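Section 3.1 - Work completed
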Amino acid sequence: MADHWLKLLIYSVFVLNIKVHGASQVNLTILDSAVSKGAVCLDGSPPMYAYEKGSGDGANNWLIYVEGGAWCLSKDNCLLRSQGMMGSSRKRSNNPYFTGIIDGDQTFNPDFYNWNRIYLPYCDGASFMADVEGVDPETNLTFRGARIFDVVMEELLNMGMKNAENAILSGTSAGGLTTILHCDKFRGLLPNARRVKCISDSGFFIHGKDLPGAKGREDRFADVINTHKLAERLPASCTSKMDPKLCLFAENLIGDVQTPLFLVETSFDRWQIEKNFVAFLGDEAAQLWSNNCTRNVTRCTSAQFRTMQDFQKVYLNTIQKAVDKSANRGLFVNTCLLHGHLSNRDGMCSSVVGNVLQGDTIRKAIGEWYFDRSPFQAIDFKNNLPRNCSYLTWDEATDTCLKTNACGSKSNHDS
């Protein structure tokens, strides 16, 4: 089951990196100097990043996007992962396409298109948190994601990020959790910056103690923590209050994040419903859900809708309790049946799939919040059923966004 779960996540990352018309494919830089510092992927290969230089009024602004892709749960699971691009730079043959929040096209990304933009591939399997000194003698694996994060940040600081005026750390899925876990650390690297904030997309993985499968969800994160020896590396603000296995659930983390943080989420998170809820309901439920309901809601039965509504109720209750009402916290919670928003044009230009809250697209909501024009916290309470907001083809997203003027103009800010 763990291997099947990993393959699905690898496929989802692959889909986000297939060739798309009009997007810029950016070369990966292999950071060979990191090897001497022990900052290596699971298989011991050097980490990497892709970078597009900023220009004009964005020349001193920096945006980092962290790739997602779940976690590996055991040595065997991590060994399998190390044989592909999610655990080895040697296995990553394709350069990423810069889309969504790192799109270089002003039409589709007016606020950040000319910033210094970085895509950070994920090759450690533990949200860049592990730092195990020795190489595992049984598998020859290294668990050193924290060192990767540190050396990439050091590289970017030396490239000019130390002089940043504005900066953002962002990521999707496991990369969204990375963003939450490293947000304050990132802020600490830039003491002279005018504005440093974080944006987590689909990284709010819930415990759901009142939902079936709570122990399974606990055990899954416990496996990650034990495999990567994270117990001493998770935030003490959490581990001092509860069992460390609960300290990868975002609800137990974000209250202690001091840096401004924006959450882009859906109360019908496809991945969580499939892998963190339905997967723990037993074989009979697995058979019921084999109709691909979570890929097309027109296939869903009334029983499946009730199951997803059960998840939604707990999800909304959890995120409302976890997110305070201050302007430091931004929130966009829709009801689309999907997982991930920031890495594609129809996710950011979200009105093309009917994903608008308080009249704003995800792109506009983020821009207004980031540049301190207005706070933004919105949750879709009107819909208690999931909606199809499937990713359009690249050309469809582009054409629809342009025709409906949904991309919007640059936020009104002074920097």
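Second construct:
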Amino acid sequence: MTSEGKTTRSILLSHWLIVLLGIPIWYFTTYVPRHSLPSERVEAWNTRRPCFLNALERKDGGCGAETTNGGNPAKDRRVLPYSKDVELVFSLLNEDSSVGGGIMDWDVNLALRDQILPVLSALEPLHNFSIETQISYYAPLSIQPIFDQEEQNWMVEEEDLKAFVNSAEWNLASTSATSKLHFILFAPSPRHRPLTIKGRKASSFITPQWGGVALYNPPSSATLSPSDLAHPFSLFASQLSILLGVPSLSSSTSMFSSVHLSSLLRDRTYENIDSSLVALQGVLDLTRRITNMPISIEVQADFTSALDALDNVMKATTEKEQLKFSAEAREVANRAFFNPKMVSMLYFPDEHKYAVITPFLGPLATYLLAATFKAVKAWRKEKKEKIKIE
């Protein structure tokens, strides 16, 4: 056996040794942890969901007779998803006060006291409210009103209402995690007065899950008194009740009875439970469909905590406790669904990893296999020659 052949085989052996040692290192560094999830508990809850509303009403945790609409209350898509903390932002926006005729100030505190605070007081068992007010002296429209010759006023088309709110230029965008509802008192510039909504008697509208807008064609006064604000803020009170899931709520607390409150608590509880189960089922579907998606210990803990909170809903003795546990379940279920590690895997599947590695490993593997084949062939040849010599 020549020294050259020994050297070649030693080099090849060292290469193969590196490969064999690298395989377990590669495996453990690219291993995707997948902790188990209690899918059977989610399936059990999905089975119970159609009769859950009836169980809430009976307060005995049982299904009993079937409920109307499959136990699923009709959902108003205008209603803001439930959140314990809600921030209300009341804004006075002038289209362009530089041309004159703008509203420079408003006596908003009295309007809030008389029209809004009674509603907030009635809804206090469900939400913690905070209020912010602001005035803007330049809030240009992103749409062009149409002048009606017959009515002698400016009008906004019904289909243009979706684009009426110009959040970017009106400085209404927010990065806060707190749920917000905006209420805008919009004063058009003198060249667009009076401004109304075509085909509507009311000069106000609701943007689903965002807030409400009221058009106000101001008098000559540059300051709005409480009497000037009475009608717009009564509209805001009505819009607020609709956006928070109580369409029948009046600005007067005498209209908000214990029956209203009980019904609202149950509706919000069911909404939270429904949203929680959708998120939990979504986690299960994703992990089953994407086999390389990690299931970290944090996701497992949030998933289990959400189910425990749902179980506590059925054990709760009061409607307020049921709402509290259902809100907790919704929060942790959404946290499990939107876990950053899980979401990132949606954009980095195995195919991408192979596409990155193959250009490097392909040529190396070709060289190593060819060299190994050549070395084995030379070794067999040397062995045959040695046998002949002997």
